[in-house]
Amino acid sequence: MTPPAADPAPDADLAPVLPVLAAVREAAPLVHCLTATVSMQLVADGLLAAGARPMMTETLAEAPVVTSLADALLINLGTLSTDAMEGIPATVEVARAEGRPWVLDPTAIGLAPVRTPLARQLLEQRPTVVRGNASEVLALVGAGTGGRGADSTASADCAEEAAAEIARRTDGAVAVSGAVDLVRDARRRARLARGSVLLPRVTGTGCLLGALTAACTAAWEDPFEAALAASTWLALAGELAETRATGPGSFRMHLLDALDEIGRQP
Q: Which DSSP category does 178 fall into?
């Protein structure tokens, strides 16, 4: 009689973060996203696929009030509008006053004359997690002039000292995305060599990672572990989606399915 096949070994990167994914699905946190207009649909659909709930408004009249209803806040400077520029500081102030975790995604900062000083101003408000690519993280501390738009011209490892400095200043965590992701806080570091080459070929996957990070901070107290869990979640979902996709368009669809699947019991 043939013995039954052994269960496959758990993924070594997924296993440590499974409790965070389970906590997000259990809590279904409401994440208020001030994010790029070009990525809103993917961010909203991705949060829902992961088990969280999205909410999006950016005006000064409404965004601070709405934040009081949310479990976490994402500030993404992607397509920075006049409304967002006015509403963001007051929204962050409410999140801090009410003890809500919040994530800063300083998209495309560097030479940009409005978003760059705004991002540095927001850094002084001590975000729970800063999530960006290496060029953005370097520019945030004045150690670089940014990348090419939203694309990095540096590797995550090049930004490790800048990430560590930010973590010390905020007492939070920093997630630097790239071919190899880096997550830092003041005393811990993790590198994650996972993901898909198709992730950067779909608009908004970085914004989605910021939103997932916010969802994880809402459900999990440790910012470092929350940031690492979000990075792992999206990277493994990207790998699974790539096995099913024929190109970037179908990859986007399969990515949403994979976000729902990763970490669930078979």
A: S
Model's pTM, two decimal places? 0.94
Query: Over the range 90-115, which residues count as b (16 or more CB within 10 Å of their CB) and which as e?
Result: ebbebbbeeebbbbbbbbbbbebeeb
**Whole-angstrom Cα distance, residue 202 to residue 196?**
11
User: Helix 223-244 and helix 248-261: axis angle, to 10°?
Assistant: 130
Phi then psi for 55, rounded to 5 degrees? -150, 140
Q: Which domains occur in the chain, in start order?
A: 18-256 (3.40.1190.20)
The answer to whether residues 162 and 138 touch, using CB atoms and an 8 Å cutoff, is yes
Which positions of the chain have pLDDT values less than 70? Answer: 1-9, 144-153, 265-266
Q: What does DSSP assign to residue 4?
A: P
In this structure, the chain runs to a length of 266
Sheet with 173-177: list strands edge to edge: 53-55, 30-34, 72-76, 102-105, 129-133, 173-177, 181-184, 189-192
Whole-number Cα distances in Å, 55 to 45, 47, 210, 230:
11, 10, 14, 19
Q: Which of 12, 29, 10 is nearest to 226 (CA)?
A: 29
Question: Are the CB atoms for 43 and 54 separated by under 8 Å?
Answer: yes
pLDDT given at position 92: 97
Give the pLDDT of residue 183: 98
Q: How far apart are CA 259 and CA 253, in angstroms?
A: 10
105, β-bridge pairs: 76
